[in-house]
Amino acid sequence: MERITTGHINFTYRAEVPTRGPSFILQRINRQVFQKPEVISANIRLAADYLHKHDPGYLFPEPVQGVDGRDLQYDESGEPWRLFPFLSGTYTVNVATSPAQAYAAAAAFGRFNRLLSNLPIAGVGETIPRFHDLAWRWQQFTDACERGVPARLAEASPEISQAKRFSTLVDQYRACLQSGALVKRVFHNDTKINNLLWWGDRHEPACVIDLDTLMPGYFIYDLGDLVRTLVSPVSEEERDVTRIAVRDEYYEAVVTGYMSAMEPVLTGEEIQLVPFAGKMMTFIMALRFLSDFLLGDVYYQTHYAGQNLVRPRNQLTLLEQLCGGQLPN
């Protein structure tokens, strides 16, 4: 077996069958992040069954069931494993290289969201509770400001002050929930471009992958993460903040691509929140990175000292760009 190291959470391998070449993806779910892997498995199975019934032609990679009919198998240590078919002729993309590619990625996630928009959420569990709940992430941030490592609180003082300037985004998020402006549906919740497979011959999206965060949420989560990860020419790891920018042509491509699929199922109130999506998700990631830095790097892996301070500084810079250099209304 060959270890695949592009993912940061689970442990993934490519399993080969002699004389046939690679044919399966074997994966162990990281229980430190996903404490209820059976919820992940049940959600994916619900989505697979729903799509088989309502959109049988849609390519949806689902786990291979064992002889016992289960999608998950546990080893002697109690670790959960699953097996996926290897989809030959596909590849992944880590960075969008053109607005057209950004459009295609956003449209692919939008289509995925639309096809699952009528899946009853009653039986769909949360794989990570309150994952994109901005009010909860804000509370975690304020808690970290009170009990963080003193030296880190001093070092991150400019970023803490900068983050607090955007607290009105939390107020806006709470108001959206209280007013009922957002409709809860099933979403992917991690819409990075490398969570798509692309056909090698046509260079078009083949299917959505990495479904561990498939769960109930709001459209601003998926659209927002697409904006956050695709509009800037550099990633959240970039140390030079002068390189961070909102490329208007990419922003337009992301929004247009996503809405080309999802607009028919969104309400008028939801459509009004399209500009809020990217700001909200960028702010969430800034808060999560900054909180982790203040607490001593307890969640995100780091490869050099201060990396979890570089990340929120990066995201707060992008947030300012998304807000046009102004505080949000």
Order of helices and strands: EEEHEEEHHHHHEEEEHHHHH
Domain count, please report it.
2
Number of helices: 11
Helix content: 40-55%
What's the gyration radius in Å? 20 Å
Task: Please state the overall shape, judged from the principal axes of the Cα atoms.
Answer: globular
Cα separation of the termini: 53 Å
Q: Could you give a short account of the major beta sheet?
A: 5 strands, antiparallel
Number of strands: 10
Structural class by sheet pairing and helices: alpha+beta
Polypeptide structure, described:
It is globular and about 55 Å long. The longest helix has 22 residues, at 274-295. The protein has helices at 37-54, 99-115, 134-147, 150-155, 157-164, 168-179, 219-230, 248-262, 268-271, 274-295, 307-322; strands at 2-4, 11-17, 21-28, 73-74, 80-85, 90-91, 185-187, 196-199, 205-208, 215-217. The model has no long low-confidence stretch (mean pLDDT 91). Strand 1 and strand 2 form a beta hairpin. The protein contains eleven helices and ten strands. The chain is 44% helix and 13% strand. The strands form three sheets. The protein has a five-stranded antiparallel beta sheet, with no helix packed on it. A three-stranded antiparallel beta sheet has the order 6-8-9. Strands 7-10 form a two-stranded antiparallel ribbon. The chain has two domains: 2-86, 2-Layer Sandwich (Phosphorylase Kinase, domain 1), CATH 3.30.200.20; 99-322, Aminoglycoside phosphotransferase (APH), C-terminal lobe (Aminoglycoside 3'-phosphotransferase, Chain: A, domain 2), CATH 3.90.1200.10. The relative contact order is 0.14. The N and C termini lie far apart (53 Å). With 329 residues, it is of the alpha+beta class.
